Amino acid sequence: xxxxxxxxxxxxxxxxxxxxxxxTGQTSGPWVVERSGTTxxxxxxxxxxxGVAWASGTNGTVLRTExxxxxxxxxxxxxxxxxxxxxxxxxxxxxxxxxMASGTGDASRLYKTTEGCSHWTLLFTNxxxxxxxxxxxxADKHSCTLVGDPVNGAFVVFQTMDGGKIWNRExxxxxxxxxxxxxVFAASNSSLAMNHGNGFRLxxxxxxxxxxxxxxxxxCRSSSWRVWPVPIFAAGVSAGIFSLGVRPAxxxxxxxxxxxxxxxxxxxxxxxxxxxxxxxxxxxxxxxxPHGYRSAVAWDAAAKAWIAAGTNGSDISYDDGKTWQPxxxxxxxxxxxxxxxxxxxxxxxxxxxxxx
Length: 356
Hints:
Layout: H1 2-20, E1 27-28, E2 31-34, E3 42-49, E4 52-57, E5 61-65, E6 73-74, E7 86-91, E8 97-101, E9 109-113, E10 121-125, E11 133-138, E12 144-151, E13 154-160, E14 168-169, E15 192-195, E16 200-204, E17 206-207, E18 212-216, E19 226-229, E20 236-247, E21 255-262, E22 273-276, E23 284-285, E24 296-300, E25 305-310, E26 313-317, E27 325-328, E28 334-336, E29 339-341, E30 347-350
Antiparallel strand pairs: 1-2, 2-30, 3-4, 4-5, 5-6, 7-8, 8-9, 9-10, 11-12, 12-13, 13-14, 15-16, 16-18, 17-20, 18-19, 20-21, 21-22, 22-23, 24-25, 25-26, 26-27, 28-29, 29-30
């Protein structure tokens, strides 16, 4: 009898782990794993504040928490989204959010909810049959920017000023790019960054032609994009800048951290992080880089530090990206502090930082 009880108990534990995608309460360095209720690969995460956060991933998955991660709610799936990969999500409160699907052609879409994810409306479908959307960032409820890989010789940039009803394509010579040589990575919805309050927009790229930083200053016009090379990162199909972090700096050029590397060489630390104190015009490589490829970076205001995460772990820098030290060896995709997400439905929350 006790033997069967033991087997039944083991079976229940295994089924529970399968259902929830990970064991809750476990820690990985400073990260405490939470129950997501899904096994989807998660790449979208946006912490709104006040305990509210939204996450998104494969198979049309959208999640929401209103209590600081104690419980993650599985949202109603947007229409015809069962096969879509939601790589990015942007939210304003517990009721309003836009989720971005990344895929070729009309597999790239935007949906919006204003009803706490119980109902979604299709906002915008990719008009380019060869296009692929990579990142969505918003300055407020009305103004958002959407970027994608090059189509017809130029990076794709759309902007809305009415909350997503109308999307206008930006054009200009500074957006010129060859699709076979340049691209944007959709690993964490953070290859595009915005310095909120002053209209600064920054886009990090990669590919065979090497990495570049595209910079647009407000008011954002098509002619305002400038391009600067970022030679710190290796060139390659799977290499370049994957994420940009911006520390607000009023109306002067922001301090920027870029992380990335080669996705196919996750343990290679060379060329995985750089910093710029003049908005991206000039770059310096990290003297001690993260311990591998990194797909996301974010500023932790409470700890006064930068945190980067990727498929072989996370790192922290207390000296503005000059040196990095390991935090853990977990498998992560995206950050929106205090949360980090990854494959297999992994969601974890950063423990309060100890005084340094």
